[in-house]
Amino acid sequence: MDSQIKVLAQVSSGSESDWTAVYEEAFKKDERMPVEEIRNLIGKGTMVLHRTLSQSDELLCFSLTMPTSDFTLLSYIASNPSIRSKGVGSKHLKRLIELHKVNIFLEIESTMEEGLSEEELRTRKRRLKFYEDHGAKRLCMDYYMPSMTAGGTPHPGELLWHELPGKPVDDVMIVKVIREIYEKAYKLPANDKLLKKVLDQFPADIVAGTVSLCECEQSPSCGAGAAGDKPADEAKTEAPQPAPAAQAKTEVPQPAPVAEAKTGVPPPVTTADANSGSAQTAPAAATTGAAPQANEAGTAKEG
User: Fold this and answer.
1) Percentage of residues in the chain with pLDDT exceeding 70?
2) Contact call for residues 105 and 161 (beta carbons, < 8 A)
3) CA-to-CA dists, residue 262 to 50, 242, 243, 254, angstroms
4) For residue 216, pLDDT beyond 60
5) Are residues 60 and 83 in contact, defined by beta-carbon separation less than 8 angstroms?
6) In-domain check, residue 210
7) Does the residue 149 lie in any domain?
8) Dihedrals φ, ψ of 12, to 5°?
9) pLDDT at residue 102 above 90?
10) 65-69, 85-89, 234-238: which has the minimum mean pLDDT?
11) At 20, which helix (H) or strand (E)?
12) Is residue 14 a part of any domain in this protein?
């Protein structure tokens, strides 16, 4: 297929059939909204289809977004399998970011889910890297994507966002976004148990300006704490501890030999040790298939 671009991220009516074939190939059944429902939403203006076409008018990439009052949900993005990894998905995503005047949020399948095969883990990490290479930030908390099929099992996911200059994202906004995704995209009630499970991780008195941002590198070692935080036991290892009170109150103080004077001061932790400890930290379960997802190779939910 010719990967030379003729039309980049152009708004389309949804009546075309080329995007539906890629959509159904790229996403699992429990990640997909029914095509007719998508077309109805496009017709109502509550969902927008963007298509990127080649010089011969063949579909190269498509995306589906759901605009809201003050953010846009990137529900799905996928490239034609014949031209994946040729940079078309990247160009499409960059154009989407340029077109929107609000922050863009998306979900991906979790890179921290346990029991994944090596191949699946590599695929998910590649997706995450794809978005982070385009400036996406990541929520460092447990996140779940409900199934799009009735009675389906939720999937561990990760919530990402592209933040526009001058439009900072904080925990207040993230809570609002999660509510809207669950209630509008997944059509779940406001008292849904899974929604409550996710939101209960935020403090009851959320302060504007705070954000549970995960800035660690591409590694499942990023747990549910703030980015860069070390496990409590590791943090304590590096700090010398004061001598026990009993030792300080010895009735007949004796001059301590040099070796004894250093007792109680733990040896310094080498960078390698610290990194190793961090890498072993148990991750929080997280992405790119519930509320609509994406991938250049195939999940936002990416396909």
Assistant:
1) 69
2) yes
3) 67, 11, 10, 15
4) no
5) yes
6) yes
7) yes
8) -130, 165
9) yes
10) 234-238
11) helix 18-26
12) yes
Distance of alpha carbon 136 from alpha carbon 129, whole angstroms? 9
Structure tokens at 255: 């001059």
What are the DSSP calls for 74-136, one per residue?
EEEEEE-GGGTTSSHHHHHHHHHHHH-SSEEEEEEE-SS-TT--HHHHHHHHHHHHHHHTTT-
Q: Does a structural domain hold residue 185?
A: yes
Number of domains in the chain: 1
Gap between the Cα atoms of 201 and 251, Å rounded = 50
Contact 73, 32 (CB under 8 A): no
Question: Scanning the structure block, which residue is given the tokens 């990194």?
Answer: 275
Which H, E and C letters describe 149-199, residue by residue?
CCCCCCEEEEEEEECCCCCCCCHHHHHHHHHHHHHHHCCCCCCCHHHHHHH
Helix axes 118-132, 88-99, angle to 10 degrees: 40
Asked if pLDDT for residue 99 goes beyond 60, the answer is yes
Q: What is the CATH number of the domain that holds 173?
A: 3.40.630.30
Integer Cα distance of 268 and 15 in angstroms: 65
Range of the domain at 174: 5-214
